[in-house]
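Notebook p. 47: complex prediction with magnesium ion.
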Amino acid sequence: MMHDLPKFAVIGRVNKGKSSIVSTLAEDDTVIIDRGAGTTRACREFPVRIDDTVLLLLIDTPGFQQAPRALAWMKEHEVSAANRREVVADFVREFGHTDEFADECRLLQPILEGAGILYVVDGAKPFRRNYEAEMEILRWTGQPRMALINHIGEGDFSKEWMPALDQYFSIVRHFDAHRVSFADRVRLLQSFRELHDGWRANLDQAIESLQTEWQRRQREAAHIIARMLVDQLTFSKELVLARYETPDDHKFKLEREFHNALRERERKARQQIEKLYHHSKLETDEQDLEKPVFEQDLFAESTWNLLGLNPKQLIGLGAITGATVGGMIDLAVGGASFLAGTVLGGAIGAGSAIFYSAQRLATIENIMKYVQGAQVLRIGPHRNKNFPWVLLDRALLHYISIRDLAHSRRERLHLTENQEKTGLVSRLDHELRKQLARQFEEIRKKTGDDTSKELTRLSKLLLQVVKEI
Amino acid sequence: MRRETCISHLWSLTNFNFARIATQQGNRLRLAELINLENELIACRDADPQQLRKRDRAIGKKLEQAQTSRAALFLAWLDELGPRQHSSLGERVVEAYRTMQILLLIVGVLAGASAASATLAFDGSSPVNVVHFLAVFVGMQTLFLLFFVISLLPNRIAKWIPGHGELLHLVRSLSYFAGKLAGRVAEQLPADKSSRWQQDWHALRLRHKLYQKVERWLLYGLTQRFSLAFNTGALVLCLYLIVFSDLAFAWNTTLQVSSQAFHEITTVIAAPWAAFSDQAVPSLELVELSRYFRIEGQYQIAGESARSSNPAAVGGWWPFLVLSLVTYGLLPRMLTFLLTRMKLNSLLKNVPLDSADCDALYDRLTTPIIETRAIEPEEPAVTAHQPYAPVAVQAEVQTCDVVLWGEIALDRSRAELAVQQRFGWRCQNVLPAGGLDAQVDDETCSKLTKDGQEKQPILVLVESWEVPNKALLHFLQQLRSKSTPKRALLVGLINTEGNGLQHPPEREDWQTWRETLADLQDPYLRVETMVVTA
Ligand SMILES: Nc1nc2c(ncn2[C@@H]2O[C@H](COP(=O)(O)OP(=O)(O)OP(=O)(O)O)[C@@H](O)[C@H]2O)c(=O)[nH]1
Ligand SMILES: [Mg+2]
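Predicted complex, structure tokens below:
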């Protein structure tokens, strides 16, 4: 059966993004990618295995370094057009143990062993005739082959490339290693089917499993986010004061610990999402200001100004009243005017920024427990009506940024301007939002008790959201 | 061993084994399993997701064909996980529950018997007061039954019943105190048992959401069992006393109740069986005959004289009393007991295994694991380079040779202009290399090296965004080998991107070029940046 295993060697000139494409296709962010030439020095196999059965094999290869000279040798040794594949094999035999064409020999080896060819070019750079040397050698091997036009950088020369590629390859596709979606990956696998009939069954199975896996991840992501939300909305912290202590002794520390714990919970959930989508090596940006809003601090003013729902939407959900907004604004401006805030609150939106910023941090409650004669300080759960929405917004933005992040990219993906400015929850369908709001209320009522029923319901709602965005 | 068989024997005798019935049907969860399942699911929350998936998918594959329902699948999963320390909670709970059942059974029978003997106490000096018997076995039992029925009503209906709230409150406080009491009891146990018990109790309180509903009915099951035992005990004792002693029945109450009224009450009580048996419905005559008064510390039965002439009239209460006990005590309790059992069975059969945790488990068991990453880690690339420290080109140079490498987008005249602008040199030969035909490279190489122009630098113009590949390195090495070691070789980087001829190459590209070429360790090889203006 071994000979029926579909194998695909990713071939191309050095530094055209072969490893990037493999990394993206195999969701492997450990593949070494570098702007230098000859980063990949040996072939590497990426078996696609489903429950430990290998369905197909992806092979990353070193790049062509001196195809014209190799072709010259082959032409010299060509006897007839019929035995060209033999000539290529001879070439590998001749130079396999020397340094002269080390890379060419290594990359040709898997092809001679039956791998299909995925030939990668950089469509952002102009076509040059010397590429025909590589293409010719690949043609000589007689293996099924398709071309992938990658785009490293801005330019677009695909029109120049097309006529040449068409001559040598049965299928030509665009495949941008840095920007492909899941659908693009599936489409690519589907086009592999055309290369060779014997490979179809395995490819179909692989495609189906990938799709199942993708849906499973959506479910799990929804579950992770739901758990995080339930956790955050019910979290509180208590501290029993000794007799001689006053609340002020601990207020600051308790508040800081409380908010740090919330931040930590969010970070944990994000890590789980990243792991779920096989991103383990993301670099973090150092400067806070350049980060997209969902990467900034959970309790930063900008976060609350941009994410979550606006007062009008909150009122629409019955979560707050206009007067609350007014009261909040009064609070924010220091209660300077009894009425001004309420009037402003009526003219919702006008003061929305102030509204959000007020009370984005939870504050301490003192609870007297006379029974034991002790005084207890409590902080949380966080009461701000917008809190769950800000959390959800951040979680969703982070989620899509990870979901859509190609594994060839090692920096965190920054979202488009548009997504950053408004967040996602404010654009959700109203009915869905209403159901979410109801769940949030239910969860908040449940402080301390078991919340598994709410968790289950919220997971299901979030799955809907996750599928939509 | 002996103890166990003994207990299980008791079991089958008392027909408590709803659990066994359940497994026979294959896809119903037993209580113990339900508790264990919940416990396992909670343990899963803290485990590493990758490992969980591996473990559960391996199990899931084994079970793939055999199982039809979720419950069956989860059951098999529990089986596959095998006996584990934290999964024996279920068994322990069930064991405790069964012990409770036996205890309640014994206590119930004893309580029923003693209630009966108390109400039927007859020492010959004063007769048995029928009113007591009716109060305990008809009145109170009916009241308790009513409570039970009310507690079954859904909240939205029950809340309209007066006193329901208070009742609920009472029940809650009672269960609170019961919990406290249980805690106290646990403290009295030996230390290891006590802590185990407390752990279990805590685990149960925290984690009973899957079987929350079941739990309520388990509780009902216990109370109904107790009531059933109570009535059985009472009935048995009643019959015993009736058979083995001569009971004289009479009735009396402090309230002013006429014989007529009391007769009406008994007729109402006897209504359910009036149609079948005249004997068991007290006649007005019997009621009048058996009324008694307390006068000056002595009991006087109304028809004392008649009694001696007609003892059956006074003893004639017993069929009525026995049937009251059966009709208002035993039968309803049998019904409620059956009801709770049926309900429990159906609950266990239809446990909603659709919580988020269950869904996740189902996913882990049924969706294949797809892996696409490389198996072996990649060897890190060599990043160390030779230092780049070339020797400066001599100042008196006037002319140079130029190689247009790799089909660079630059014609001869613009190349000459660029060289002029950058170095002030004139170009003598301008030749191509690095194209499709490798032979051209050799030709260019020999042309540029054949007349021994040692003083004249060779400038290879390349596109800066390309990387220095081995073909170029090979070409440069060839140039070097065919000329003297000190002939200046220059690589000029031109950014031909877009209309970028006017732009210098990008920093990173320049860096890459210098690093790569430095590795040739040729001190007379330099990398220069070129800008071409129109
Ligand atoms: N912007 C952008 N850059 C890309 C893309 N694909 C590859 N690159 C960059 O191109 C460079 C080379 O990528 P690699 O994947 O290492 O190329 P390679 O063909 O495997 O290179 P060698 O192993 O050296 O032959 C890296 O700096 C990548 O970041 C892309 O789709 N978009
Ligand atoms: Mg590579």
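Notes: The longest strand of chain A covers residues 53-60. Chain A touches chain B through 67 residues (CB under 8 Å).
Next step: compare against the earlier run before touching the bench.
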